[in-house]
Write a structure and sequence with these properties.
135 residues; 2 domains
Length: 135
C-alpha cells in the first residue's frame, strides 16, 4: 500500500458505502430466506456471483499481462536483504566440513588399501627372495 493517507472525505465516503453494503447484505439474506422468492433470489445471486467471478478472473489476467513483475519485485522487495537472510541461514562451514570429511575418508580408505597391496607385494617379493613359503 502507498505511504499516502486517503483524504478524510474519501475515507468517510468509503465507510458509508461499506456500511450501506453491509446493511443491504443483511436485508438480502433475510429476504432470501422467504419461501416464495427465496429460491428465485438464491438462483439469481448464484448466477450473478458466477458472472462476477468470470469478469474478475478476466480482469486479473489482463492486469497480470500488463504488469512487469520483475520491475515490481525490484521496486517493492528488498532483494539484497532477502539474499542476505538466505545466506545467513546457510551453515556454509558445516557443509564444507561434511563434504571434506567424506572426501577425506574416501581418500584415506583408498590410500590404506593401496598401502596394504604394496605391503603384500613387497612381503611376497621378500619371501621369494629369501626362499620362504608363500603365506
Amino acid at each position: 500500500m502507498s505511504d499516502k493517507a486517503l483524504p478524510p472525505a474519501v475515507a468517510v465516503a468509503l465507510g458509508v458505502v461499506a456500511s450501506a453494503a453491509d446493511g443491504v447484505a443483511v436485508v438480502y439474506r433475510g429476504v432470501e430466506g422467504l419461501p416464495m422468492v427465496g429460491s428465485w433470489l438464491r438462483r439469481g445471486r448464484l448466477d450473478l456471483q458466477a458472472r462476477g467471478e468470470r469478469v474478475l478472473a478476466a480482469g486479473i489476467e489482463t492486469i497480470l499481462d500488463e504488469l512487469d513483475l520483475n520491475a515490481l519485485a525490484r521496486e517493492r522487495l528488498d532483494l539484497i536483504g532477502l539474499a542476505d537472510e538466505v545466506v545467513d541461514g546457510i551453515d556454509l562451514p558445516a557443509i564444507i566440513r561434511q563434504s571434506t570429511d567424506s572426501v577425506t575418508a574416501e581418500v584415506m580408505s583408498d590410500v590404506r588399501t593401496q598401502g596394504e597391496r604394496a605391503d603384500d607385494l613387497v612381503s611376497g617379493f621378500v619371501d621369494r627372495l629369501l626362499g620362504r613359503e608363500p603365506r
